[in-house]
Amino acid sequence: MRSSVKSSKRRKDLTGQAVRRSVLLLLSLALILSAGGCSKQSTEEVPQLLDPVTVEAGTVTVKRGDLANITYINVSVVPKTEKLTFAREGQISAIHVAAGDQVTKGQVLAELDLTDLSKEIDRQSAQLDFQKNQDDLAETAAYDTLLAAQADQQAAQAAYQEAYQALTQAQEQAAKQQTAASDPAEENSQPAREESSTAGQPSSAENQSKGDQSSVAEPSDSGSSSSGTSDSQTTGKSASGNESSTASESSDSSSSAVQSSQTQTPAQPESSQSQESSGQTETSAQPESSGQAQEDEGPSLSDLQEALTSASQSLQYANLEVSRQALIYQHTVQTDSLEEAQSQAALDRLSAKKQGTLTAPFDGVVVAVNKYEGETAQEEDTIIVLADETQLCLEGEPYDNDALSKAAKLKADIGGRTIDVTYRPYQADDYLKRIMRQETPNTYFDAADPEDLTLGQTGTLMLYRGEKTDVLYVPISCVIKDEVGSYVYKDEDGQRTKTYISTGLETVSYVEVTDGLEEGDVLYDN
Questions:
Q1: Helix (H) or strand (E) holding 70
Q2: What are the backbone angles phi and psi of residue 486, rounded to the nearest 5°?
Q3: Residue 217: what are its φ and ψ, rounded to 5°?
């Protein structure tokens, strides 16, 4: 009984499963058929668009009005501050204030240890004194040498004058002897006196040679000048140059005089034997007298000429030596003066740094103290920052120093009021030092009326780079640039027309139009 019930139940389960499979197959087939029919139907039922879809483009109108290029900078009202630094490096020996202290003008705020500086000043001062003493000795020695050269010059001038006078006198004496020897009438009338005088004088040939020497110009008194030397030298050369021609002329004149004397001797009458004997006695004694005269004669003209030439050369050298020593003395004085001036300047710089204290330049409050006792302070190190709360200004974020200096106009909106301000520029070296110290060089502005400011206020600074009134302008988004220039798309009877324009002042949002458009023109906004 139980087995038949189980068999009947198993058959029911198998039949149910078969039915479910059949239903699933039918549903799947129905879905496939319906999908194919829908795909075909959708392709056939897509409608065609008769008109294209258009999107309205934005347009703007060319306007006329005022245009300004403004840059905005955040600012705050702060007191005027000053950074105090020592003029030299050194170790800080004392700091007398702290941040927040009220100070008065002239109050000592900090000090340096000046022990090393005092020693350096003493050393530089002693060196300057020693240098002055050495310079005085050098200048005295150079001056003494110059005086000695001038004394030698005067001696050379005197020797030259003496040689010149000796030569002149000798030439004059020779000329007189030549004139006496060349006069026949005088010889015939007084033969005995001529022979007697001839015994005590040089031969006629020698007298003729001496008489024909060219005269030497009287030398000028050169003193200690170089011009005197030049004149003396010229005189010496002139006398020397004429010596050879004078000697030849003297030789010819002497020969003529000798022949004339020999010719006249036989024509003289012999009065008696005693006169002849007397004449022979005189004749035999004549060589001895002539030799004695030659011994007492002294230097010849040529010797005197050589002496004058030598004296002229000595005078020329003395003049040159005086000029040289004068230049040496002048150079010594100038060099010593320059060296002393340099040493004095170095001492003055050290003395200026001797004031190793920081004092308050005005009444104010200490904002910050950056160094303390025992620390080393370098030049330009900020030791104390002092603020004057009675002098307020605007402090802004860092900005281009050059742009602020060239601004067309500066205004500030402080507490709802617009006030005029001026830029307080940095000095070039100060700005560079701040950059090198990696400081933030904030910008500072002074109000035209300080009473408009209140400590702690904030506001906006307006930097006008350019400003124009009553000009045409368009939004900057309408302007396109290419290799030709700037252009816009203008609406002409519903058509987009490319139009080139000329522009002027530009701002963040607008551009000035100087040519190509008129007020009221409609443009397409890009």
A1: strand 63-84
A2: -100, 140
A3: -65, 145
